[in-house]
């Protein structure tokens, strides 16, 4: 019997241990950010250990950084975390995309952008959205701080192999429906736990037709469906994306020849297959307080049916069963994050906002996922389009994706957001988040509520 993509990747990395038990896995790349690394470095110091492979480790600053006046960090905890990572990288000889430098940005944006993320790798980070990197035909997964320390010290990690799930996505996406709607639609239909215990591989003609940035948006949100790992087989789109990037392999042809062997064999079996007909998808909007509480823009919000979680979600979000997304009073819009803060996302939003002004009731933040994204957008004049439309154009970082820096949505306000989590308090205490694609968020910013963009997008 053949092997799945995930099995091939896994088997290449097993250092010790048997199937069905925790196995010691070799790690090709560890990405680091300021939130989940301080205790890991402290642990190394206490145990008088060094970093085993500093050259396979790369750090950035993202969660705590302000997006304006970036060197003037007001919050004492944020400042401490940032200074601590800077000091740790210096002490342990780790490359750091420091504040304000060209390479800095959200960890899951800069890895691919710098060519650090490559097919065939095992990539870890103390961050749950590390599955983003699986879009390149690698194993990417989030780890805890004690595991960050273990990887720093040994370049390996103990993991139990998950089961294989195939998500077959086929058909042409309708107008106004994007990669974000594939993953929101999947989680909306299957719930936030369908992937628990599985590695998810997305495949099919729809996936083949997507750009790397679109593939990353899908793999990014795999964790919101309960799976730690999401992956897509590498193909010409992947190779073209990587070639020429700073850390791309020097012998590219040789690397590509190896990467071309990374796919699921026709004789391999997934443990479970889920089918998604992309041609039937609608633009999605989340109405509740987890990403599973999501539905098509034109469908009424569900009944409570005695479900205490649904009741609690409605209480928090201030909406009622039977209402539709066009009735959500949007007063904030956020473009950014490791899900949809890349150049293609900003291009989509700018195309919609060009020559228009956002609804005066809506405060709009546009936060590029990295400094390279920001510079590329500015070179195209997108910053001016956003500013002319009445949006705030900012410096890169996680920003209002989570309330760990000055960018917060006020209590009770509804924010149309290109991010990946809509938990209570996620964007600020009492803030109400509605997840959607960049195009949906752009039209919500113009109208003060969501609209069914299938009728207006070309
Ligand atoms: C702060 C960090 C550990 C966290 C994560 O693990 O994902 C954050 O990035 C998030 O998106 O919630
Ligand atoms: S942008 Fe959001 S989801 Fe991504 S790493 Fe930052 S906080 Fe986490």
TrEMBL record:
<dbReference type="InterPro" id="IPR050067">
    <property type="entry name" value="IPM_dehydratase_rel_enz"/>
</dbReference>
<keyword id="KW-0456">Lyase</keyword>
<feature type="binding site">
    <location>
        <position position="338"/>
    </location>
    <ligand>
        <name>[4Fe-4S] cluster</name>
    </ligand>
</feature>
<keyword id="KW-0432">Leucine biosynthesis</keyword>
<keyword id="KW-0411">Iron-sulfur</keyword>
<dbReference type="InterPro" id="IPR001030">
    <property type="entry name" value="Acoase/IPM_deHydtase_lsu_aba"/>
</dbReference>
<keyword id="KW-0004">4Fe-4S</keyword>
<feature type="domain" description="Aconitase/3-isopropylmalate dehydratase large subunit alpha/beta/alpha">
    <location>
        <begin position="7"/>
        <end position="448"/>
    </location>
</feature>
<dbReference type="InterPro" id="IPR015931">
    <property type="entry name" value="Acnase/IPM_dHydase_lsu_aba_1/3"/>
</dbReference>
<protein>
    <recommendedName>
        <fullName>3-isopropylmalate dehydratase large subunit</fullName>
        <ecNumber>4.2.1.33</ecNumber>
    </recommendedName>
</protein>
<comment type="function">
    <text>Catalyzes the isomerization between 2-isopropylmalate and 3-isopropylmalate, via the formation of 2-isopropylmaleate.</text>
</comment>
<feature type="binding site">
    <location>
        <position position="398"/>
    </location>
    <ligand>
        <name>[4Fe-4S] cluster</name>
    </ligand>
</feature>
<feature type="binding site">
    <location>
        <position position="401"/>
    </location>
    <ligand>
        <name>[4Fe-4S] cluster</name>
    </ligand>
</feature>
<dbReference type="GO" id="GO:0009098">
    <property type="term" value="P:L-leucine biosynthetic process"/>
</dbReference>
<dbReference type="InterPro" id="IPR018136">
    <property type="entry name" value="Aconitase_4Fe-4S_BS"/>
</dbReference>
<dbReference type="Pfam" id="PF00330">
    <property type="entry name" value="Aconitase"/>
</dbReference>
<keyword id="KW-0408">Iron</keyword>
<comment type="subunit">
    <text>Heterodimer of LeuC and LeuD.</text>
</comment>
<dbReference type="GO" id="GO:0046872">
    <property type="term" value="F:metal ion binding"/>
</dbReference>
<keyword id="KW-0479">Metal-binding</keyword>
<comment type="similarity">
    <text>Belongs to the aconitase/IPM isomerase family. LeuC type 1 subfamily.</text>
</comment>
<dbReference type="InterPro" id="IPR033941">
    <property type="entry name" value="IPMI_cat"/>
</dbReference>
<keyword id="KW-0100">Branched-chain amino acid biosynthesis</keyword>
<dbReference type="GO" id="GO:0003861">
    <property type="term" value="F:3-isopropylmalate dehydratase activity"/>
</dbReference>
<dbReference type="GO" id="GO:0003994">
    <property type="term" value="F:aconitate hydratase activity"/>
</dbReference>
<keyword id="KW-0028">Amino-acid biosynthesis</keyword>
<dbReference type="InterPro" id="IPR004430">
    <property type="entry name" value="3-IsopropMal_deHydase_lsu"/>
</dbReference>
<dbReference type="InterPro" id="IPR036008">
    <property type="entry name" value="Aconitase_4Fe-4S_dom"/>
</dbReference>
<dbReference type="GO" id="GO:0051539">
    <property type="term" value="F:4 iron, 4 sulfur cluster binding"/>
</dbReference>
<comment type="pathway">
    <text>Amino-acid biosynthesis; L-leucine biosynthesis; L-leucine from 3-methyl-2-oxobutanoate: step 2/4.</text>
</comment>
């Amino acid at each position: 019997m053949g092997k799945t993509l995930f099995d091939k990747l896994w088997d290449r990395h097993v250092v010790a241990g048997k199937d069905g038990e925790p196995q010691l896995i070799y790690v090709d790349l560890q990405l680091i950010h300021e939130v989940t690394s301080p205790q890991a470095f402290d642990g190394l110091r206490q145990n008088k250990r060094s970093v085993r492979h500093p050259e396979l480790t790369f750090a950035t600053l993202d969660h705590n950084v302000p997006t304006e006046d970036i060197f003037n960090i007001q919050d004492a905890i944020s400042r401490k975390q940032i200074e601590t990572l800077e000091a740790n990288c210096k002490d342990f000889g780790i490359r750091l995309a420091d504040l304000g430098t060209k390479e800095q940005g959200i960890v899951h944006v800069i890895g691919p952008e710098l060519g650090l993320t490559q097919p065939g790798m095992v990539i870890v980070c103390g961050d749950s959205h590390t599955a983003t990197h699986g879009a390149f035909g690698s194993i990417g997964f989030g780890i805890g701080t004690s595991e960050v320390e273990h990887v720093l010290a040994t370049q390996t990690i103990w993991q139990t192999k998950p089961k294989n799930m195939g998500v077959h996505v086929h058909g042409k996406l309708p107008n106004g429906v994007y990669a974000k709607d594939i993953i929101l639609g999947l989680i909306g239909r299957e719930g936030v736990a369908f992937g628990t215990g599985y590695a998810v591989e997305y495949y099919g003609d729809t996936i083949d037709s997507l750009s790397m940035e679109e593939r990353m948006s899908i793999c990014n949100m795999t964790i919101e469906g309960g799976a730690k790992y999401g992956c897509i087989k590498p193909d010409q789109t992947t190779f073209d994306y990587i070639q020429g990037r700073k850390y791309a392999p020097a012998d590219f042809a040789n690397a590509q020849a190896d990467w071309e062997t990374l796919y699921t064999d026709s004789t391999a079996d997934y443990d479970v297959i889920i089918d998604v007909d992309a041609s039937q998808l609608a633009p999605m909007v989340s109405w509740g307080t987890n990403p599973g509480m999501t539905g098509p823009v034109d469908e009424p919000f569900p009944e409570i049916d005695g479900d205490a979680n649904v009741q609690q979600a409605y209480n928090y979000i201030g909406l009622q069963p039977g209402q539709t997304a066009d009735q959500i009073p949007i007063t904030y819009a956020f473009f950014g994050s490791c899900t949809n803060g890349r150049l293609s996302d900003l291009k989509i939003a700018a195309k919609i906002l060009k020559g228009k002004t956002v609804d005066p009731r809506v405060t709009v933040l546009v936060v590029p996922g990295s400094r390279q994204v920001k510079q590329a957008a500015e070179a195209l004049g997108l910053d001016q389009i956003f500013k002319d439309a009445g949006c705030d154009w900012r410096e890169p970082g996680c920003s209002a994706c989570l309330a760990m820096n000055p960018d917060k949505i006020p209590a009770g306000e509804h924010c149309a957001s290109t991010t990946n989590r809509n938990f209570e308090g996620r964007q600020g205490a009492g803030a109400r988040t509605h997840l959607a694609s960049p195009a949906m968020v752009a039209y919500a910013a113009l109208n003060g509520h969501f609209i069914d963009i299938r009728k207006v997008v070309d």
